[in-house]
Amino acid sequence: MNLCVLGAQWGDEGKGKIVDLLTPHFNVVARYQGGHNAGHTVYVGGRKFVLHLIPSGILHPGVICLIGNGVVVDPRALFAEVDELAGMGFDVRGRLFVSDKAHLILPYHRELDILSEARRGDRKIGTTSRGIGPAYEDKIGRRGVRVGDLRDTSADGPLVSAVRENVDARNRLVGNSEMKWQDVLADLRTAWVRLEPLVTDVSLYLSRAMASGQRVMFEGAQGTLLDIDHGTYPYVTSSNAIAGGACTGLGIGPKTIGAVLGVTKAYTTRVGEGPLPTELLGEMGERLRESGQEYGASTGRPRRCGWYDAVAVRYAVRINGLDALALTKLDVLDGIEALEICTGYRCGGEVLTEMPGDTAQLALCEPIYETMPGWSEPTRGVTRYSDLNANARAYVRRLEDVTGVPAAIVSTGSERDHTIIRDDSVAAAWFR
Ligand code: GDP
Predict the structure, then answer these.
(1) What is the number of the ligand 1 atom nearest to the C-alpha of 48?
(2) Which among 88, 303, 389, 414 is least buried, having the fewest CB atoms inside 10 angstroms?
């Protein structure tokens, strides 16, 4: 069965580790949206790998990694990652392919990202300033440059016109002519030499792979609450991080997806601006940040931390059709006396049990908590569910009750083997 693995909160849920763990049971791992704003951290044998653009499946020799049309690709970032992997002994040749329909992030996109954030002032989104948003804007505005467009080597063809028009637009907007379209074009021509052997029709590749019985994992970046349509707009990313994004971002039919696994932490974090109903601003928030090492993998920014928000996760269950949860960072809660779970919101005299669609209303919501006892006996590194202490098991069980889906995988540390696979759950089938 194919499997889609995605973030069921505000991103940074630990998808990298879960994808890495499941990868040996799949032949192909395909990224379907986002860009190098993602930061998937994987620890293997004490070595740390942070992957931004390339699926974390690349750390498993023999697994094919695909970057779909829904991803925006900065060639410089891609090659930097390829080179870094090579330096660590991972050869991507013949294993990494990029869709010819993926849009390119060009130098002016990075610049426009920074300018747009500065213009927003207090209402800034908190982007990673890597040009992701402006690249998607050009895609939707039908003026973007796609990877496959670089095949055009003519001196006055569509590629030259597109680059010239886009750089002219940048110069008008910024108010100077410092950027020369000829330089941008020359960089793209240079990038194409390295990019060309990686380029493929990802949809066709997947269709043939699946027809021949290969198993595919679809890898989402960011998280459901950051989805451009279903997240806390406008404090969102510029692409569809939800399961539906796998169809549009790879060119596959919905029935090929199989199961959907949502990754959530055992608490909640968010980086950047926007509402976070369970945010803890005091000592407990600081404690979660420090023991969970909640600093952005891409930007180093401190993450905002809070209690588990079951309303938000229930929403993710609905929007993605989640079959199960992978619950990460349970160990971070070790030693906390009492834990709160948000099961509803209080808003303007009303009690809400469903996520409001209006972001301004969400910002006014107060969490309704129920309290669970914490535990002092460490869960860190535990690999069998029955070895978890009774309070930790009760906490996991309660999260399953309030979200309505089983926690098929429970992660108890950043290492690959610090993981509990529930034999009695749907996840067992993914490991066969
Ligand atoms: P992603 O973008 O969803 O892959 O998440 P990140 O990589 O940004 O953040 C997850 C961080 O948590 C990484 O540093 C992981 O190594 C770490 N991590 C994942 N699972 C666990 C866990 O169960 N316990 C602890 N302590 N850390 C974990």
Answers:
(1) 16
(2) 88
Q: What is the pLDDT of residue 298?
A: 67
Please give the Cα distance from 120 to 104 (Å, whole number). 25
The pTM of the full predicted model, rounded to 2 decimals, is: 0.95
Is the CB–ligand 1 distance for residue 270 below 6 Å?
no
12 alpha carbon to ligand 1 midpoint, in Å? 7
Is residue 17 lining ligand 1, measured as CB closer than 6 Å? Answer: yes
Kindly state if the Cβ of 69 falls inside 6 Å of ligand 1.
Answer: no
* Closest residue to atom 10 of ligand 1, CA basis: 14
**Is 40 among the residues known to form the active site?**
yes
Q: Is the shortest distance between the CB of 6 and ligand 1 below 6 Å? A: no
To test ligand 1's pocket by mutation, which of 329, 332, 379, 421 has the most ligand atoms within 8 angstroms of CB?
329
Other beta carbons within 10 Å of 165: 12
Report the C-alpha dihedral over residues 119, 125, 129, 130, rounded to 10 degrees. Answer: -130
Query: Around 133, how many Cα atoms within 13 Å sit in the side-chain half-sphere?
Result: 20
pLDDT at 310: 98
Residue tagged active-site, from 20, 36, 40, 149: 40
Structure tokens at 176: 């100077």
Q: Are 411 and 379 in contact (CB under 8 A)?
A: no
Q: Is the CB of 331 under 6 A from ligand 1?
A: yes
Active site residue 230: no
Q: What pLDDT score does 150 carry?
A: 97
Q: Which residues contact 400 (CB under 8 A, 6 or more apart)?
A: 325, 406, 407
pLDDT value for 121: 78
The span from the CA of 123 to the CA of 305, in Å, is 21
pLDDT-above-70 percentage for the chain: 99
Tell me the mean pLDDT in the region 332-355.
97
Taking Cα atoms as reference points, which of 421, 240, 229 lies closest to residue 326? 421
- Asked whether the predicted pLDDT for residue 193 surpasses 90, the reply is yes
- Take atom 11 of ligand 1 and give the residue whose Cα is closest: 14
Average pLDDT value over all residues in the chain: 94
The larger pLDDT score, comparing residue 347 to residue 177, is at: 347
Query: Coil, helix or strand for 51?
Result: strand
